[in-house]
């Protein structure tokens, strides 16, 4: 009797094509955001009343309850569904949480130090991208769209300012927890975990998958005038995850970026620092060039350490 060669059992969801996976994930994410946003607005009505409910829908930041209402909307209507969508997809649709969520912590801890250095030294490069982005304009035929995007971004900015009116250290720590940690975990599981895996399998090219995911990540935030720097961040996060094989370096980098902005905003509000966090003309051309060189060297070293190679060899 001839025995057939043993075949490794494949996850049940492996028969779903990458394109169909993308459709399922997209529809599922939108549906969860819609449902939980409705629940969040209902909770705003229950806890804060009809006036705050209507003010939240119109982003009337003059309402004294607006900050707490927007936090509720952010956590329940955005952060929670962005975490649930990739988890449910990986666990129950694909039945392969290991490959899609990449929640293993088996990576070199020293990589976290390299990520910290990269995020610190990337500030001048990010400033360049912000300034270039601000000069981008759509054709005259799309002026209406540009005005709409600008209006949406201004509303989002007002909402962020209302949420991040931090009077105490506890307010700042709460912002670090939600905007820094919880948002980083949710968005990294969705984008660098599930979506990047899908895009790499769809394109059969890891670099294309990382860049497409970064573009979608930036587009998701619907902030046209910070589009380029967010794409760059998405690319960084993507390579951190791909080279290490774990989602947590991406979460760490995302957390550092978000938490730093919250802390700087708090220090500026409390007049502890004079540097306006919205000022994008801090560095000079020499700083830009040095920043780029240092980032490339650090990324090269990160890649080699993550792959178990010598720091001096490619």
Automatic annotation (TrEMBL):
GO terms for molecular function: endopeptidase activity; metallopeptidase activity. Pfam families: Rce1-like. Residues 142-169 form a coiled coil. It comes from the Bacteria. InterPro entries: CAAX_protease, Rce1/LyrA-like_dom. Keywords: Coiled coil, Hydrolase, Membrane, Metalloprotease, Protease, Transmembrane, Transmembrane helix. Residues 172-259 form the CAAX prenyl protease 2/Lysostaphin resistance protein A-like domain. The keyword Protease applies. The chain crosses the membrane at residues 20-48, 68-89, 110-132, 172-191, 211-241, 288-305. One of its GO terms (biological process) is proteolysis. This is CPBP family intramembrane metalloprotease. It comes from Mucilaginibacter celer.
């Amino acid at each position: 009797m001839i025995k057939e060669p043993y075949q490794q059992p494949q996850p049940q969801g492996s028969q779903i094509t990458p394109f169909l996976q993308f459709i399922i994930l997209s529809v599922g994410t939108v549906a969860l955001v819609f449902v939980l946003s409705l629940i969040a607005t209902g909770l705003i009505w229950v806890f804060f009343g009809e006036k705050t409910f209507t003010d939240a829908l119109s982003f009337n930041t003059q309402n004294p309850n607006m900050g707490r209402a927007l936090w509720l909307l952010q956590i329940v209507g955005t952060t929670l569904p962005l975490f649930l969508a990739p988890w449910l997809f990986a666990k129950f649709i694909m039945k392969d949480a290991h490959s899609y969520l990449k929640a293993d912590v088996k990576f070199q801890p020293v990589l976290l130090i390299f990520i910290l250095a990269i995020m610190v030294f990337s500030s001048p490069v990010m400033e360049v991208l912000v300034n270039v982005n601000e000069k981008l304009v759509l054709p005259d035929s799309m002026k209406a769209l540009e005005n709409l995007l600008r209006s949406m971004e201004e509303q989002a900015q007002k909402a962020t300012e209302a949420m991040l009116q931090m009077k105490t250290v506890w307010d700042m720590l709460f912002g670090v927890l939600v905007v820094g940690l919880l948002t980083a975990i949710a968005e990294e599981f969705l984008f660098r975990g599930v979506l990047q895996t899908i895009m790499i399998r769809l394109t059969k090219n890891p670099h294309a998958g990382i860049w497409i995911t970064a573009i979608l990540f930036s587009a998701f935030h619907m902030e046209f005038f910070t589009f380029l720097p967010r794409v760059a961040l998405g690319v960084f996060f993507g390579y951190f995850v791909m080279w290490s094989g774990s989602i947590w370096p991406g979460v760490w980098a995302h957390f550092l970026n978000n938490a730093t902005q919250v802390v700087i905003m708090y220090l500026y509000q409390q007049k502890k620092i004079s540097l306006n966090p919205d000022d994008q003309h801090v560095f000079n051309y020499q700083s830009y060039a040095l920043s780029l060189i240092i980032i490339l060297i650090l990324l090269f070293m990160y890649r080699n350490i993550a792959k178990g190679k010598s720091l001096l060899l490619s």
